[in-house]
Amino acid sequence: DAGVTQSPTHLIKTRGQQVTLRCSPKSGHDTVSWYQQALGQGPQFIFQYYEEEERQRGNFPDRFSGHQFPNYSSELNVNALLLGDSALYLCASSFDPQETQYFGPGTRLLVL
Amino acid sequence: GQSLEQPSEVTAVEGAIVQINCTYQTSGFYGLSWYQQHDGGAPTFLSYNALDGLEETGRFSSFLSRSDSYGYLLLQELQMKDSASYFCVLTGGGNKLTFGTGTQLKVEL
What we know:
- The complex is a heterodimer of chains A (112) and B (109).
- Chain A is mainly β.
- Chain A has no helices and 11 strands.
- In chain A, strands 2, 4, 5, 6, 9, 10 and 11 form a 7-stranded mixed β-sheet that branches. Chain A has a 4-stranded antiparallel β-sheet with strand order 1-3-8-7, with no helix packed on it.
- The radius of gyration of chain A is 13 Å and the shape is globular.
- Chain B is mainly beta.
- Helix content of chain B is 0%, strand content 58%.
- Chain B has no helices and 11 strands.
- In chain B, strands 2, 4, 5, 9, 10 and 11 form a 6-stranded mixed β-sheet that branches. A 5-stranded antiparallel β-sheet of chain B has the order 1-3-8-7-6, with no helix packed on it.
- Chain B is globular, with a radius of gyration of 13 Å.
- Chains A and B meet through strand 4, strand 5, strand 9 and strand 10 of A and strand 5 and strand 10 of B.
């Protein structure tokens, strides 16, 4: 049984560009949450998707958007990249919005 | 808002017992969790306290006191593989997780 998978593993972009990160939840899970983890910090909640809708959002600007597909996989899009967007982006899934979240290995984004 | 404070670093010897403390400020939450993260890896769920008291899972135990806004993670029989970062995490409405600052545990021989 595959756990949470994310792609790509690493990504390098330049300021002003746009990026799309992908997440496939653990089998049987229908809820996906995204987190940003800056170096030396704890993960910060970006948003949560359930039933293809954004259910909750953290304190992130509108440059951060997402989508959930009918198969429960999800994308995180970041527009107009800033140097400060360099971080590890983690996806977590659960089989219900109230249950334990399981994290993927993350995508490490570097913005130059 | 919510905030959690943890020691930034703890060092202990293999085979010993170590306690990682966590204090928090919040207007409301459902429970306190602990996650482990090895360098470059995914955070891994360790334990969850919805109620006050002690929860035990193998070598790991976690404690919560809502009246004191305090919790801790206790690791027994430390092993080298326990060297990692440990995060206390508040679970809010809709299962939104708020992570603490993280404690880097170094286990030495």
